[in-house]
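[step 3/7] inverse_fold.run input=structure_tokens len=247
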């Protein structure tokens, strides 16, 4: 069941809530032990869903899609003017806020994803910050959809699971195994676990503030990301123009 306060962008229902409202929705669903599946939508994922019907179907099974980054946010302003998205959300910042929110409210977190280095670094960081008590399990990235992993996750009795398997695997995991998972809040975080561990470097704050974090990532990984941004951004703009002017 969708939360309901959404805008339709490229056939995806993007929820229109700010950071604090998202945290309150998470808290409410934990208190009710009610399943809430959450994932981010950026321009790249929105474009990929146009070409990949399987991914689009998986995304449509989520309860809560939120806008990540500048592309979808500005598209909402262009399409809906003052009724566009009320706040520009960063998935990385939201993950950090959820993490701190969970610590404050003594919610238990399970982390599934990230590479071996990220998982090891995260464990060390948590021990340094005395935050280990919030984490009831960590498993590095595994794309086998192993039922034994699901059993281990269920035994944790966590309140929140971060799935950092990457698109489209994390979306498929939640769409296919989410109903068998007894953790109420299921959040696809992409490389969020790598960012939490500190193994992935974030852009300088000034670039984050002006919505240019994607350019910093392109600078760090040009071979992997050049098509995503240099070809993807113009394609995304064309599709947004079509949505605006071609009914």
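[step 3/7] decode complete -> sequence:
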């Amino acid at each position: 069941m969708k939360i309901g306060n959404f805008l339709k962008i490229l056939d995806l229902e993007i929820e229109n809530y700010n950071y604090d409202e998202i945290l309150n929705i998470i808290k409410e669903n934990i208190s009710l032990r009610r399943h809430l599946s959450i994932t981010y939508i950026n321009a790249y994922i929105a474009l990929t869903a146009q070409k990949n019907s399987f991914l689009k179907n998986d995304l449509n099974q989520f309860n809560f899609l939120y806008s990540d980054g500048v592309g979808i946010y500005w598209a909402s302003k262009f399409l809906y003017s003052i009724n566009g998205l009320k706040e520009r959300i960063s998935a990385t910042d939201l993950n950090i806020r959820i993490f701190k929110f969970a610590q404050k409210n003594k919610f238990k977190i399970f982390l599934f994803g990230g590479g071996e280095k990220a998982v090891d670094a995260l464990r060390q960081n948590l021990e340094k910050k005395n935050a280990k008590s919030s984490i009831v399990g960590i498993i590095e990235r595994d794309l086998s959809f192993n039922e034994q992993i699901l059993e281990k996750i269920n035994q944790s009795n966590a309140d929140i699971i971060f799935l950092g398997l990457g698109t489209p695997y994390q979306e498929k995991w939640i769409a296919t195994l989410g109903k068998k998972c007894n953790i109420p809040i299921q959040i696809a975080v992409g490389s969020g676990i790598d960012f939490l561990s500190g193994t992935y470097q974030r852009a300088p704050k000034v670039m984050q503030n002006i919505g240019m974090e994607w350019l910093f990532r392109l600078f760090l990984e040009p071979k992997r990301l050049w098509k995503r941004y240099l070809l993807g951004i113009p394609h995304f703009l064309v599709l947004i123009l079509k949505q605006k002017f071609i009914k």
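[step 4/7] annotate
The beta strands are 6-9, 12-15, 36-41, 64-67, 109-113, 135-139, 160-164, 185-188.
Residues 6-245 form one domain.
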